[in-house]
Amino acid sequence: MNIDEIFDNTSFAIDRDPHIVLDYDICTGCDNRGCVNSCPARCYTWSEEEQKMTFVHDGCLECGTCYVVCHRNAFTRWRYPRGGFGVAYRMT
Amino acid sequence: MSKTYQAIVIGAGPAGSSAALTMARAGLDVALVERGTFPGEKNMFGGVLHRLPSLEKIFPDFWERAPLERHIVKKGVTFMTGDSSFSTTIEAGNYDRPPYNGYTIFRPRFDRWLAEEAVAAGATLITRATVDELVLKNGKISGVSVLGRSGQLSAPVVVAADGVLSLTAKKAGLRQPSFDPAQMAVGVKALIDMPRETIDERFGLVRDQGFANEFVGVTSGVRGGGFLYTNYDSLSLGLVFHLASLRTSGKTPYDLLNAFMEQPQVAKMISGGRLQEYSAHLIPEGGYDMIPELFGDGILVAGDAAAFCNATGLNLEGINLASHSGVVAGEAVIAAHQAGDFSRQGLGIYKKLLDESYVIKDLKQARKAPHMLHNNRIYQEYPEMMCSFMENIYKIEGAPKQNVSKQFLKAAREKVGLGNLLADGFSAWRSL
Question: What is the ipTM of this complex?
Fold first, then answer.
């Protein structure tokens, strides 16, 4: 299984308006960044070179792992997507 | 979108639909609000649907009507290392006779069906509706607003069955503002397509028989475990990780899942299968100590939202606890309507009924289990010890043999340490 091919295996109705918004300055100052490795959908990437966090909500499985592991409360918004958007499991 | 109901249930999972069904059957005008395009769209689990006494009472033909997969006749535990495994299984004649002890199911199918039963009983299902805020009037809950829609849904009482993170319980001040990663786990799952005959032959099953297996030692030392469940024509294979352990491990759920799938013995089980769907979900694993305030003025909390999940190791229960709490929440709302009292006091019957039920009693009994499971040795050293001990027991190479207890002590000394073995044995015994 290749996590980069998540869209081949799981279907999504992507909302343009992200349901999770980060204050990246907090991520830059974070001493843990457990979100990067813990997110099962690899939505978070940390660039050591640029000292910069990138977050993409497209493949978010709405599991809530980031909500729990982030101890700096870096979210300016953390909610579930609007009704009808986000991940759509078919037969799991 | 403005309408007034006698009750609003947030979330059409097993807890919410059970609550709505109970209320609708008693004639209450209840709204069942679901953020998915259909109930179950957002839900997954890696598990078995166990007996549901409270729903069986509501409809005695429950098991004939529910959309189920295989019934579990064989349950196993496997201690695994990178290239070895030691398994124990129990297959019982009684597991193969109704009432069955458990079934595999697909949540998008099962949850949808249960919600439709609530609708058939008279509940109003509102899908594509993510609840945004609790609406207060004169300091009392008077309904909810929905993200991206104007107006509000009004009711004197709300049942928060909105799942493990329960943003509703948070807004009502019923749960802690943030979660302790030590009380949460994340499960990831691969649904693997496989012909029914292959599954039957590979796992020794006939008719509708199913197999469920748990794995220890498959998470590269991260606290957690693995599971394999047979559906009619697919396998559910996955891993569960304690978040406090995962977040500091530097390891990723998908890399560990891939390694699990490539472990030689697991690879044989899933060989020829095709990945169909990848999913993830949180599990409230903190047990009794994680339970939030279960009720407040105009609000009740049920299911995962109330941390009703019994994950003590071998048995993993959630849907049964959720549906029971939903039914009891429904009964409490019915009683509140009869008394015309939706205050904290009027809804207090909910907790009283739960305290008397297996939901709270079992969680209370297993109160220490979550702490015991925070022992890292369980997830690597002990599986290695078991496999190495068993491997040596069966090794015959023409040299004089050590007796079994000496071999056991040798494996224990090498892999775990005798002091640790004693201490762990003692704490395991105490937590039982």
Answer: 0.96
